Structures
1.
Amino acid sequence: MRGYSIHKEGRGSIAWVSCLLILVGLLSVLSGSSLRGTWLAFTACFLVWAAVLSFFRIPKREYPEADSCSVISPADGTIVDISETEELEYFGTVCTKISVFMSPTNVHVNRYPVSGEVVYCRYHPGRFLVAWHEKSSKWNEHNTVVLRTENGTEVLVRQIAGAIARRIVSYAEVGLQVKAVEELGFIKFGSRVDLFFPVGTRVCVEMNQKVKGGMSLLAQLSE
């Protein structure tokens, strides 16, 4: 892919899919299918292979340097929720929440939205409801990471699997010092990322806005 590379998390999946599709193609030839049927089988195999390859692409971008108060989008996608809501796993209080939905066509790598120290990590197995379901952040497979910035503000990032995704990958570890836009992890085949921060934080996006991971400014923390 021109201007793209393939994420390391996709190598195994792409290899398995490639072998499977080659086998399907060979079986189509050996079964004595008509020329039209064989071409249809190979075309379908190629489209599936290309779709899987697209899921694991990483665009080559020049990421701007974020200041200590900027909250950068952790993923490519669409803003589907901006609200004040209770966050009970870590904060135990009402927070400002921004949700970024990743469709199957979006880039699925996740990035740290702020620089700071990782102070909390927890993985939760769960169901696989569609990512826009109101209960998906609680019931679906998800992974929670909390970052403490240099001014002491804590930002929670929650990776949420959807109806297609079956595995969340996170590179965060408690005590790790990270920088904004470094790789946080990957949600195989997409879904949603929620962010929570203190009420009163200035939100810099609006509903249904398209954002790019590591580039779009979501909010501005108080100094």
Note: The longest helix spans residues 35-55.
2.
Amino acid sequence: MHLPEDYSTMEAEIKAERGAPMAKSSNQKLKVLHLVRIFLEKTDEEHRISIKELIDGLARYGIAAERKSLYDDIEALKLWGMDILYSKEKPAGFYLDRWDFEMPELKLLVDAVQSSKFITEKKSFQLIKKLESLASNHEAKQLQRQVYVTNRIKTMNESIYYNVDKIHEAISANVQIKYQYFEWTVDKQMRARKNGEPYIISPWALTWDDENYYMIGFDEDAELVKHYRVDKMQKIQLLEAERAGKEAFEDFDVARFAKRTFGMFGGQIRQVTLECDNGLVGTILDRFGSDVILQKVDSGHFRISQEVTVSGQFYGWLVGLGSGIKIIDPDDIAEEFQQRLAEIMKGYR
């Protein structure tokens, strides 16, 4: 549950009224606000609080409270919108029943943050701490344990969050952007491509694919739709020039683009027919989506005809699936694949 926007203002105004050390009457003004805090931080369905514990909790803030007045305060909070319930099951007591997120949802969000390569370790920790604040202190401990479930590789570029914000700003303002594009060297240093010459691109979309964040835009000089890793972009500046490529993006489908582009590597877009073992149905559906048409060949094989971006990554995907898949059409793509395989084999002779 979120506090109302004026919660902090109310507390600040009350404190401002005090001036000198808080008197008993001023303490009483803050009582209901501290009650809200106690219910938010200390209670959930599994952790209830008794009237005596509420009295003790308020006493830690220097606030004296009587049982009858607390019952009245709880009723007022319920009228205000807090879903405070009472359970007779031991341990009996009051608790805040409704949260904006359920625990399974928060765990899912934590795992998504932790598993995202484009979020640095530092930012992952900060985001997870903020997610913890959406649960009670008791439930937050479950999220803390989730943080250390795996040891995943993370990006080293902290500026990605500001890059995303700049790109969204440019898309909203319908303007082009200028930036430098970097690549990693063997000594783990970022080196600008094109000797630091800036890229000028019209950004049209952002997509998260293959565990990385990509900007999809239009290169006016090349008259092509291109994509760039957001974590490899630096020194992004918004230009005054209006975005180009509107016609190319009128019917542009980001999902279709990502589906046909293997590892987000560029290449020629071709219609390719593949013959696959039946055991690869799940792999094909994962790659191309459930709407792909499977044509039965015989009792053990099926075919698909799919638009793909032909690249080294596409061929690598085929190699990974071994003899269970082969290119049927077009012939030139099948021949190029054979030549690549032959080149690879030369290195092992």
Note: The first helix runs from residue 7 to 18.
3.
Amino acid sequence: MIQVDIISGFLGAGKTTFANMLLKHYMRSGARPVFIVNEFGQTGLDAEIIKAEGFEAVELEGGCICCTLKGQVSVAMLSVVEAFSPTHIVFEPSGIFIFDDFFDVLKEEGVRGKCELGNALTIVDGVNFSYTKAMYGSFLYNQIKNAAVLILSKLEKTQHDPDELIADLRNINPDSFIMAKKWQELRDEDFELLLSERKGMYFDHPEHLHSHFQTVTLKPRNPFSQERVNKLADLCVSGAFGDVFRAKGILTVDSRATLLNIARGDVTIETFKGYSEETLTLIGNKINKKAVKAFLLE
């Protein structure tokens, strides 16, 4: 049976970064992993990031499992099995994800008997956890309750006491294994430890909140200077474009392909070593598409 690892986590928690690290661990151990990602917006950016690292990646854009993509996930998994004969499938759902819907996929004809749940891991944003819990707790609680392993991200950036974060997580899921270690310090033995942790699944059916989220994807007209991309990030964070919880894109900045990654106030701008069409996706509430378009097309 092919093991399917789920890497869940709310928007911008660090799922793709961790998936990349997990794929590398599997490769070092002699496994044959393939990555499948379900993106909420109309962009295949996360798949492109993984492909740039040399891995096979399949993207499912523009929807979520519970609304429109259950059938597509099943088809994608079976296509991956046939094309690559993997030992592991690493599946990254969108941040707007409910575990129960993925279990339904594993029960579908064709998938059942070939694939089974391997590891259920949830990435918890160490910077934005308190805000996310207050604003979007229904999704967050479902992901945390179902995970055998909870992995804190951005510990090098957060002002929160990790022990307080761990106490909050224990109140939601007292049985999970919690990895609270800076990611640059993770070694193969840490991955072996967290992958060895399994537990029974908790089933919960949270309120369906997808209508609370809006996604806007646009292509910039012109290349960026460093000053202009910094201004773009400031506009996203300040509220000038609306309540932007998540922004991500590949932009040309001073003639270099550049990855812009924003999770609320957490901004990363770094060189992108792969190739991808320039695009920017914003996810949030009451996004001012007219203002975003005016800035990108100026």
Note: The first strand starts at residue 2 and ends at 9.
